[in-house]
Amino acid sequence: MQRKKIIGAGITLFAVILGIIWLIPLIWLIGTAFSVPSFHMTLFPTTPFTLDNLKYVWNAIPFGTYYLNTLTLVICTFAVQFVTSTLAAYALGVMDFKGSSIVFAVIFMQIIIPNDVLITPNFMTLSEMKLIDTKLGMMLPFYGSALAIFLLRQHFKSIPKALAEAAKIDGASTWQTIWRVYMPCAKPAYLSFAVISVSYHWNNYLWPLIVTNSPQNRTLTVGLAIFAKSKEANMQWANVCAAAFIIILPLLLAFFVAQKQFMSSFVSAGIKE
Fold first, then answer.
1. Rounded distance between C-alpha atoms, residue 180 and residue 160, angstroms
2. What's the CATH code, domain 63-268?
3. Which Pfam families match (predicted)?
């Protein structure tokens, strides 16, 4: 018993240390963003508090356009993934057809393959389709998500078939059964994947950088990188940190407001037999 308490305390201490290490860059970013620019880098700001950095970068960067592009990318991509993943998961987890296990194995293998490996073939395909430097070109390769299909399939398989059969006896169609039986039961999986999808596409840098050429289609991350290298940044970390703070603020607010729902959804979205 005493040994279990010691192990538990050690794990807790290790988790706290990891949390503090993770918070250090965020603390430095926020402190630097709200401090008068200085050439001396310190963890905690030593110069007076100011909002001038935020005002400067807001006027120097077309944040309105970048925010609109990023929101379009995030919302539209997740909306299509919601539909395609639900239908694929229902087919693979509920419907019984020959070759379903092979199809699922092929889809599951895509989780193992890093997205960066597919950049060249995706770019060549979009080039043939004349979709380079378009919002559709940024979103199209992500319309199907192997991870979402996997999570939803596992949830759908754990739902008792008696519920679906009862719905059909009451006259529900296949679409109504999916909408009223399977989707509500898989809510934790949907919420878990929503967090993953939104955070990934909000922070994605490499693919938007490659596929976009004009300011009208740039996302927040690409705009930040270009600003950091431009003369408007004035080689000041305070300005770069202020721009980064404006970009990450929506995700930080969303996490702090709904962190309990996020954590419970990840716990409930475990792998089912």
1. 14
2. 1.10.3720.10
3. BPD_transp_1
